[in-house]
Amino acid sequence: MASPEVSATYGANAAGRDVNNSVALNVERATVLPAAVYGPIPDGPVTHDLSYIPRVMGFVGRDNELSALDAAFTCSGAVMLRTVHGLGGVGKSALAAEWAACRATAAVRWWITADSAAAVDDGLAILAIALQPGLAELPTELQKERALHWLAGHDDWLLVLDNVGHPDHIRWLVGRVPHGQILITTRRATGWHQLATVISLGVLNPSDSVALFIQILNHDGPRDGDGTIEVCEELGHLALAIEQAAAFCAESGYSPRAYLDMLRQWPAETYAAGPEGSDSARTVDRIWRISLDRLSDTPLAGQILRILAWYSPDRIPRTLLDGLASPPILAAALGRLLAYSMITDNRDGTLSVHRLVQALARTSDPGDPHRAAIDINDARDHATGRLDRVFPTNASQPDQWPLCRALLPHVEALVRHSLPDDDTPATAHLLARAASFLNGQGSTTPAIRHLLRTLTTCERLFGEEHPATLVLRNNLAHAYQTAGDLARAIPLYERTLSDSARVLGAHHPETLTSQNNLAGAYESSGDLARATLLYERTFADSARILGEKHPHTLTSQNNLASAYQAAGDPARAILLYERTLTDSAHTLGESHPHTLGLRNNLAHAYESTGDLARAILLYEHTLTDSA
Fold first, then answer.
1. Structural contact between residues 27 and 85, judged by C-beta atoms closer than 8 angstroms
2. How many Å is the Cα radius of gyration of the chain?
């Protein structure tokens, strides 16, 4: 039996008393434990079938990932570590729990929440008590040591370390156990190469996310499932978000369609809303905040995420972040976002961000330091300016088309997620060039949509008669003409020409452009008389002011030739076409799109006069060069 602990305490001294005889004794009660608790945990029936794994409700899909875990833990010998990493809320814990409960074969299977060193210690201490209940009276540190000693002496066990923040947080544990199995879940994607094999976990398959939503929604009986597919798509098939939305609909009686409307109108409140009694720390917005809290020592990481939030979620060119910081600092910030699975590196110079992370990063919340309205607005302007700088200036050049196509989804996303009243000159500049590319590719509907918004922005920022506004009005009229809507195009051209002549002057290049375009609209409407007169006037003015071989003059010359041909005067048309083609080849080059177009026009004029030999030869030449 252990000896009682005796300690002397100071007492109060009364006047005239003997101090030497005034010592008081305090005898504390001793805790008596069996000697066995100070030795190794004995083997017994409890150690042959001991399991503590959280129950997973409504688990769906993940067949490939479960099979990957089966294969990963088939080896024997030294301790086996496998790490499942992914974005917060993607379903890492659910996957680990499902595999550990239903497919793992170890005799002892134990779950430890490992988001802190203290939590790991507590988890090992509880394991020790489960293995030997008599250890309950020991201090936590001794309980942990008993568990580690047992693990080191056995190999038929599985530890699940859930939500590990960093490899260093559990490296010491791995060094203490030579055998056994350890399954780790973490948001951190990097740093495991010296410690564990990594399995990356993505979002649910669309069919599985819909199945999960329906399963939760109908748990207590059938409910209206209209809009389920759309909600799952809006939430990016993120497991936690699907569970949260479905549970909310089941409890509140909202249909998925109503939830989707609520999500779009009040995103901040909806992302934070969970069903009654749910863990407030496990809502979508809290999961995102926890991740950025861990990156708070790298403020640039949060800024990058807020900028990327305004683009399309997939294939975001890294060049859009050039100049945001010095290359080493930018690389370090991107590395931390990648490490915590907040973004994905596509290995082709592009990045991806989950659409729900983007939605949260664009939604202000006064209670979240990472989502202040001023920072979100600044990020939107940054995103716009960066996209404006890299979008090709001359979108009509074929060699620029691949870049235009790569950037167009990000332009569309920016427009979709921002309000017209927040548009800046950079927004107008960007949308005007995107519209020019779209119109040139025959996508007139989105081109017109962008031009209407841009025109409104320019009128608001600069006024209705500013040169930039006049140019945009001309471009909008051209888009209407391309779409075949001459009823809108002609009045807009006429107004623009009148305003340009008054504001800029009758011979200003922009006025000549408006004049040429109006003539083209007249021609398209069948009014060849007015079209021809305006073409002749425009050609004469362009040749005198800009020069006979200026691209605009060549365009006017070609258009006048077209009018002559349409009016039934092929001889004059052919002479003008031949002269224009020669000048264009000399000025722009034999293979320039305008030169090819002129060559095709001349071939058609030859064909209309019955000169098929020259027409065929020219058509063949044009086709070869175009290919």
1. no
2. 37
Task: Please list, in sequence order, all residues whose beta carbon lies within 8 angstroms of the beta carbon of residue 498, skipping any fewer than 6 positions away.
Answer: none
Q: What whole-number distance in Å separates Cα of residue 353 and Cα of residue 417?
A: 15
Report the distance separating Cα 57 and Cα 54, nearest Å: 10
Work out the average pLDDT over 372-384. Answer: 95
Between the CA of residue 379 and those of 11, 337, 364, 367, 385, what are the distances in Å? 68, 17, 12, 19, 10
Please check whether residue 270 is in contact with residue 263, taking contact to mean a CB–CB distance below 8 angstroms.
yes
| CATH number belonging to domain 403-502 | 1.25.40.10
Does the pLDDT at position 463 exceed 50? yes
DSSP category for residue 183: E
Average pLDDT over residues 316-339: 93
The model's pLDDT over 262-312, given as tens digits with 9 standing for 90+, comes to 888 888 778 776 665 555 556 677 777 777 888 888 999 999 999 999 999
- Give the separation between CA 109 and CA 132, rounded to whole angstroms: 15
pTM of the complete model: 0.76
**Nearest Cα to 256, choosing from 291, 196, 295, 216?**
216
411, 441, 416: which is closest to 316 by C-alpha? Answer: 411
Angle made by CA atoms 242, 243, 246, in degrees to the nearest 5:
80
Residue 288 burial by Cβ neighbours in a 10 Å radius (0-12, 13-18, 19+): buried
For residue 100, the SS3 value is helix
The residue among 266, 265, 353, 350 whose CA lies nearest residue 301 is 353
96, 89, 86: which is closest to 66 by C-alpha? 96
Mean pLDDT for the chain?
A: 86
> Which residue from 234, 245, 262, 293 is spatially nearest to 88, judged by alpha carbons?
293
CB atoms within 10 A of CB 619: 18
For residue 483, the one-letter residue type is A
Q: Are 353 and 413 in contact (CB under 8 A)?
A: no
Alpha-carbon separation of residue 237 from 38, 54, 101, 232, 273 (angstroms):
51, 23, 24, 5, 18
Give the relative orientation of helices 425-440 and 467-482 as an angle to the nearest 10 degrees: 30
Rounded distance between C-alpha atoms, residue 487 and residue 494, angstroms: 12
DSSP 254-321: --HHHHHHHHHHSHHHHHH---TT--GGGSHHHHHHHHHHTTTT-HHHHHHHHHHTTS-SS-EEGGGG
Return the SS3 of 78: coil
> Which residue, among 518, 539, 542, has the nearest Cα to 530 in the 3D structure?
518
Q: Tell me the residue length of the chain.
A: 627
604 burial (CB, 10 Å; 0-12 / 13-18 / 19+) is middle
Q: Tens of pLDDT along 15-51?
A: 332 323 223 223 333 445 555 566 677 666 555 678 9
Q: Note whether 283 and 241 are within 8 A (CB).
A: no
Domain 295-378, architecture per CATH:
Orthogonal Bundle (1.10)
Superfamily of domain 38-200: P-loop containing nucleotide triphosphate hydrolases (3.40.50.300)
Amino acid occupying residue 245 = A
CATH class of 526-627: mainly alpha
Burial of 194 (0-12, 13-18, 19+ CB in 10 A): exposed
| Residue 334: how many other CB atoms lie within 10 Å | 22
